[in-house]
Amino acid sequence: MVFCSRWVPPLAAWVCGLSVLVSGAARGASVDVNSPTPYLGIGINQLSYFDGSHAMADLVRHSQFRSHDWGEDVGADALGAPTRDFLMIFSSLRVAAGTYKLSFKGQAQVSVSASADGGSSAPPSIQNQRYDAASNTTTADVVLPANTRGNAWLAFSQTRRTRASTGADGLTDLHLWRPGYPTHGSVHFTKEYIEAMKKFHLIRGMDFVSANNNPSVQWSERTPMGWQGFVRSKGQPWELLIALANETGNDVWLNLPVKADDDYIRKLALLVRYGSDGVNPYTQAQAKPVYPPLKPGLKVYVEYGNELWNAGPGFLGFGWALGLANTHKANPTHPIAYDGATAGDQYLALRRWIAYRSATLSQTFRSVFGDAAMMTTVRPILASQVGNANVYLSEGLKWAEGFYGQERRTAPLNPVARRIHELWWGAGGAAYYDAQTPPTDTSEKTMAAYFASLPNAEFATNTATDAVWARGFGLVSVAYEGGPGPGGHATSGTAAGSPQLVSTYNADPRMKARMQAAHQIYQAHGGQLLAYYVYNGAPPWEFVDSARPSPVSDTRTVKLQAIDAIRQQPKTAETLGTLVPASIWLPAGRRAGIELDGGDSWRYDAQALRFVTGTGARGAAFSSSALIPVRAAQAGRFQFTLTTYPEADTQVELLINGQRAGVWSLTGSCGGICNGPPVVSTAVNAPLPAGLSVVRLRPLSGSVWIKSLNVQ
Q1: Is the pLDDT of residue 15 over 70?
Q2: pLDDT digit string (tens) for 591-603?
Q3: Angle, nearest 10°, between helix axes 444-452 and 510-524?
Q4: How far apart are the C-alpha atoms of 276 and 220, rounded to whole Å?
Q5: Full DSSP string of 616-664
Q6: Is 674 helix (H, G, I), strand (E, B) or coil?
Q7: Average pLDDT, rounded, for the chain
Q8: What is the full DSSP assignment across 459-491?
């Protein structure tokens, strides 16, 4: 995610957010990138007393334990339960009126503190408290006569964990069930939250599992299902995220901790396929798993960390990944350094490390799920900086092509060759957008200008860049995060970006139409899957309204109405690329949507581009090349020729959507710089599907000046 600063006044906070959303039609199992309507995702945030999601039926999963002097040290045990007297903060925004069912193992004196929302009311109370000695269980009703606003907590005094306890030693197995929900744990999520989630087809759990700062290395360090209260940096249990996907019928997106070892990755793959007992995954199908696996028909997306290019505050994963890359950058026996190119370049090593570890995730899930499930049920993602910024995407793809590709099939570091589309299903950066006119105030003049220029032109350009690189290597163009965030990058301390200001912009009816228009721009420029950020907890980007918090999960904000409309509208036709038949002049570059990769230079008369073959151990994968988007009105076979200035004999490879379609053998006729007329090559015949394709030209030997690609 983009960096969100965290403004946390005492016991209340705006926090980079939890996400999910609403409605009832299509599900992840039935809607996909090839469906006639858009395929939409949503990010969800960490659970906390200040997140405002109202996601869980059991409020303990949102709660945080504090000592009676409001310190954070409660002597937590191995499952997070307090070992001394404590407070349990369960809300700092709004929470609904009603009778909440409290239970815990042990005994305690319990009181409740909460303020009525909007005026005086009967005070909250603890009623019907009972202790059952045989089971060492206390139950009680927590009665909130009115919706409450602000900090609300339970105070536990004179705690006794066991019947034999003699001092204040805390409690275990705490639960606080919302009104109307069963108390035996059969329901995890509130009905409004599920309704909100069903607005989307895919749930991305990046914040939910604390991917940015999750330090876990071994499986034993991850959060188990029995954890009590706030989970901090290790994130929510994986079982809970899978349960959410199962209950909504949505596909699920997993973000693996950056430092997770190979055993951790394998165990997570097993958990997704077979379920778990709450601590460890099963290794085969179970008749009655304690925590079930992902339901058949749903898809699992797998990503390494989150924004590992992002060195901003709150993104520890960047430093961890950079350190791991540096450990191996000069070791020729390691995949990222197999060709010696990373020895003196830590950032090239980082780009390759991200791709390498992403490929490791893919291959580990393949070993658990089998070949048939890959790219159908299991969809690995290579995520990068938006618009191929700092060449994170292109360098990762080229390294993977060079290391895993056919030319490396006998190498001892890589005995099994893999094509790019066998490693990843999708790739790309984020798809955030703001307006050309910043939201500096809420005057009608400023707001009108903001919405008139939302999204800015950079949104289309960045989308197209990522789409060309992804689809040029045979992958789906994916935005792991995106959406509008008024003033989201404004300087701290200014009005722009404040919760009150962004609430006004996000709640404006014009936001709905502009979000629809932006999604159409995203599709027209080659984007295929956009996972919006974020349901709640990050005021600029969130889909709920933190300035006017709801006592239950919100399902009807303007942004959610926009998602309803986007989900139901037909896909926008792609306009990216040159409509063929046509001759495409390569020096046009990005004016024609062309991406040029390394080593290209202008011919002296500005009529052609020079492409050079990769040298030494790096091989043809590192040759300079051109990625050219084209569109066919209908599927068919086309003739491809090159107009060149021949120097020496050379070969140029034609790839279409990542697959080799043919090779031109070009005969040099003049040597050196040619002043004669250009030469048209022989034809390579190859099919194009209807719609957008990306043609890639790559020299396999020598160098060549190319004026145009001709498609007839």
Answers
A1: no
A2: 999 999 876 666 6
A3: 20
A4: 14
A5: GGG-GGGS-EEEEEEEESS-EEEEEEEEEE--S-EEEEEEETTEEEEEE
A6: coil
A7: 91
A8: HHHHHHHHHHHHHHTT-EEEESSEEE-TTTTPP
List the one residue out of 166, 171, 177, 112 whose CA is nearest residue 136. 171
Antiparallel, parallel or unpaired: β 172-177 and 98-105: antiparallel
Q: Give the pair of three-digit tokens for residue 550.
A: 């709801």
Q: Between β-strands 251-256 and 202-204, what pairing exists: parallel, antiparallel or unpaired?
A: parallel
Can you tell me the distance from the alpha carbon of 142 to that of 99, in angstroms, rounded to the nearest whole number?
6
Q: How far apart are the C-alpha atoms of 262 and 329, rounded to whole Å? A: 19
Residues 627, 616, 428, 459, Cα dihedral to 10°: -50
Q: How many CA atoms lie within 13 A of 447 on its CB side?
A: 15
- The token pair that represents 617 in the structure block: 């151990």
pLDDT digits (tens, 9 = 90+) for 5-14: 322 332 333 2
CB 501 within 8 A of CB 447: no
Positive or negative, the CA dihedral 307, 313, 314, 319 is positive
Q: How far apart are CA 352 and CA 316, in angstroms?
A: 18
Measured between its terminal Cα atoms, the distance across the chain in Å is: 43
Q: How confident is the model at residue 620 (pLDDT cuts 50, 70, 90)?
A: confident
